[in-house]
Amino acid sequence: MRKIKYGLIGSSGKMGREIENVFSEAGNECVFKFDIDGEQKFATPELLIDFSLPEVLEETIDYIKTYNVPLIIGTTGLSNDQLEILKLLSQKIPVVQSYNFSIGIQLLLRMIESIKNDVKDWDIEIEETHHRFKKDKPSGTAIMIKNLIGKEVSISSLRLGNVPGVHTIQFGSLGEILKIEHQALSRRTFADGVLMSANFILKKQNGFYSFKDVINNK
User: Does the structure show a pLDDT above 70 at 218?
Assistant: First the structure.
């Protein structure tokens, strides 16, 4: 597998540090960093990874245009307008955008897709728990689950300690309850997904992709 020279936006954050660790273990090199302390450049990156904040997106796009490289973005809390900007950008370069880079979450989504038409008349509740520092509420993953269900569903959000992420969906009829839950035990699971996305995106010319597309093209 080829070695990647990449840039990391939000490099000093928890996910940024985890991504750098996982990529380094695979022999890849972080040659560009941008975070609250400014920019560091050691060489020209061949792709950019953004796990920062929605308000940083404008700078991220400026860097993408400067280097003309693919983008992997896991920033949560993006507005509809910002997503449209990314879709326009993807006409020129490939973009992988997802609120969750976990394989387990993709399996959870497949389960929900397979049963949602059988529980149309059931009560449905979503609960998500994340660490106390997570700023967006509800999580992007919880919103993704709600959109997949396709109707108005209550989302309960908890911010506790250092929890990487727990998502629970409960379906209830008058006689039974079905619960599906995913727990992320560490942020490494997301960083592994970002590495998979990097190897995927470097083979593309342009297009707007999700982590589902990455998984389906393993």
Answer: no
Q: Token pair 């389906």 is at which residue?
A: 216
Q: Which helix (H) or strand (E) holds 94?
A: strand 94-97
CA distance to 35, 59, 93, 148, 159, per residue, from 189 (Å) = 22, 27, 26, 22, 20
Provide the greatest CA pair distance for the chain.
Answer: 62
Alpha-carbon distance of 88 to 93, in angstroms, equals: 9
Please report the sign of the dihedral spanned by the C-alpha atoms of residue 83, residue 85, residue 91, residue 94.
negative
CA-angle at 97, arms to 190 and 159, nearest 5°: 50
Query: How far apart, in whole angstroms, are the C-alpha atoms of residue 45 and residue 31?
Result: 6
Token pair recorded at residue 194: 């970002």
Q: What is the mean pLDDT of the chain?
A: 95
Tell how strand 123-130 and strand 94-97 pair up: unpaired
Catalytic residue numbers, as ranges = 130, 134
pTM for the structure as a whole: 0.88
Strand (E) or helix (H) holding 147: helix 140-149
- Phi-psi group of 170: left, alpha or beta (phi > 0 → left; psi -120 to 50 → alpha; rest → beta): beta
DSSP 44-83: --SEEEE-S-GGGHHHHHHHHHHHT--EEE--SS--HHHH
State the Cα–Cα distance between residues 33 and 45, nearest whole angstrom. 10
